[in-house]
Amino acid sequence: MTIAEIKKNAETKMGQSIDALKNNLSRIRTGRPSPQLLDVIQVDYYGSMVPLSQVANVSLLDARTLSVQPWEKSMAAKVEKAIRESDLGLNPASLGDLIRVPMPPMSEERRKEMTKLARNEGEASKIAVRNLRRDANEAVKRLVKDKEASEDDQKRSEAEIQKLTDKHIADVDALVASKEQEILAV
């Protein structure tokens, strides 16, 4: 493996860490409801647990309500039960084959808990990015030890890997700050 391949691999994996952070942050509840909020719910579908999005259409009904429309009428009761029993603290109401999920307003204390959760997700992503930096630098050191690269190449590549790391850490900070703003907006 060459130094260029090591750097490219590290950059790709760091990008994947950022994508994972975006996905995790989209599941954190803000003042406004989001259909992604229900993505974590698993529903019993003929004996196997599947994500809610695979058995129903989830959309925004109005500023405070999500609507869940199961594709099979027989699934409505199971979907409603899964939403009620989730740890999201939601109380769905069934209207025939449409399930309305009103989102209760968040208290100030709950908003602060959510910002802490967002910060923890950000910190986990930063740790992942730093671990990738360490792995890339160790791979470059192995190349130097095996005499496949010079020490000058090592110094240059470590500086470039550090720049990559700094860029991705700044992206993490920006994403977390943006999510905090979204959570604290009343």
Automatic annotation (TrEMBL):
Pfam families: RRF. Signal peptide: none annotated. It comes from the Bacteria. Keywords: Coiled coil, Cytoplasm, Protein biosynthesis. InterPro entries: Ribosome_recyc_fac (IPR002661), Ribosome_recyc_fac_dom (IPR023584), RRF_sf (IPR036191). Residues 21-184 form the Ribosome recycling factor domain. It is found in: Cytoplasm. Residues 133-167 form a coiled coil. Its main location: cytoplasm. Responsible for the release of ribosomes from messenger RNA at the termination of protein biosynthesis. May increase the efficiency of translation by recycling ribosomes from one round of translation to another. Belongs to the RRF family. This is Ribosome-recycling factor. It comes from Comamonas avium. The lineage of its organism: Bacteria, Pseudomonadati, Pseudomonadota, Betaproteobacteria, Burkholderiales. The gene is frr.
